Amino acid sequence: MEGPRSPNEAELPHVLEFLNQKLRNEAPWSIAAEYPTAFNRNNLHNMRIIADEGKVLSHAVLKPLIIKSPHVIFKVGAIGSVVTHDEHRGQGLSTQIVKDCLKMATEQSCDIAILWTDLFDFYRRMGFELAGNEVSFVIEEEFEANNEGLRFSTDPRVSPDAIYRLYSSHSINSVRTIEETKKFLSIPQTKVYTAWESNGQLAAYAIEGKGIDLGGYLHEWGGSVSKLMALFSFIRMQKGQPVTVICPRHATNLIQQLEKLPVTKNHGFLGMIKLVNFDQLSAKIKRAFRAEGVADIVLEKHPTQYVFGIGTDLYTINKETDMVRLLFGPVDYRAMDMFKPETLDKLEKILPLPLWIWGWDSI
Ligand SMILES: CC(C)(COP(=O)(O)OP(=O)(O)OC[C@H]1O[C@@H](n2cnc3c(N)ncnc32)[C@H](O)[C@@H]1OP(=O)(O)O)[C@@H](O)C(=O)NCCC(=O)NCCS
After folding, report:
1. Which ranges of 221-261 does DSSP label H, i.e. alpha helix?
2. Number of folded domains that form the chain
3. Which atom of ligand 1 is nearest to the CA of 89?
4. In the prediction, which pLDDT does 222 show?
5. What pLDDT shows up at residue 282?
6. Residue-range definition of the domain harbouring residue 330
7. Has residue 318 been placed in a domain?
8. How confident is the model over 325-354, as a mean pLDDT?
9. Partner of 195 for a Cys bridge, out of 225, 231, 232, 245, CB 3.0 to 4.6 A?
10. 103 lies in the same domain as 148
11. Is 81's C-beta closer than 6 angstroms to any atom of ligand 1?
12. Same structural domain for residues 99 and 139?
């Protein structure tokens, strides 16, 4: 048995065949079409396999993302397609491979690693914890919205440039190219809904579905709040059934509008997160505090604990996973009775960090 190692170019079709068999058994497309930025030659060095006599036994892939936010530019290592051959499970192969992905993430200067799963306990053993915020709204019924003179379309042949222009106006997003946007647009089972101004300019877009995942979920969208509400009204009518909008918590204006509708609102987590370069992340956070005029922020890692607070109002945190929640949420500092009111006022200038990853970037 050899690995974890990256596959060479000649092995890539083999690895994809293994993944398609294990993870996309009933899909007529390749998993590479669903995650076009993770499974391509440029990211081969971030794929990891354990193989035996030419046979793939276990796999995971790391896709580093640069996420821009108002205070901090994060580097995030997304980990996905973790799978072990049925006959080789329970031998520690996935644990080895995920740990190797974490090592790569550390070496490539990621601040954190993130993954999306329902095997919470499996990943908790490796130090991941559910963290970050996501708000979703199930639009239960059709609703009227001012259509703003827009023309709506479900034609998937939309110029990636137009989508990219609206995507770029988000306050928190990953660095993407137009070429990548083009690849995302052709992911199987992706529906593209658009709203157009009378002058032919794209006013809003929303993306539903992504391969076998996210059917019925609008996981990416862009445009002003009023144009998006008009587009959502069109989508709900088109579908004839409830549709769910996934939102970052910082999209407060859109959230306010959605809350006025007959919706079911759910609070969720962004994903399972693990710190991989605490000192680097801490330096970024301290810089963000200093830019807000808070010079005496303390965020330090000691051999067995973290020290966190402002000035002399400090708190000791023993578990890394508690630190993850304090930094990325969900957390209500005021309800925790940890800090003095003046410390809370300062902490809340930056924390919890409003990290967000749009649906096309999840792997
Ligand atoms: C989940 C999976 C990747 C684990 O692979 P593996 O190589 O068997 O993992 P390891 O041997 O490193 O670890 C197995 C350990 O995890 C535990 N484990 C497996 N599935 C688990 C689950 N759903 N919840 C909690 N623990 C789990 C096992 O009990 C075992 O524990 P033990 O070592 O105490 O006996 C494998 O079962 C698999 O390929 N499943 C199908 C694909 C899948 O669901 N992938 C996850 C996508 S996020």
Report:
1. 225-239, 252-259
2. 3
3. 8
4. 98
5. 98
6. 273-347
7. yes
8. 95
9. 231
10. no
11. no
12. no
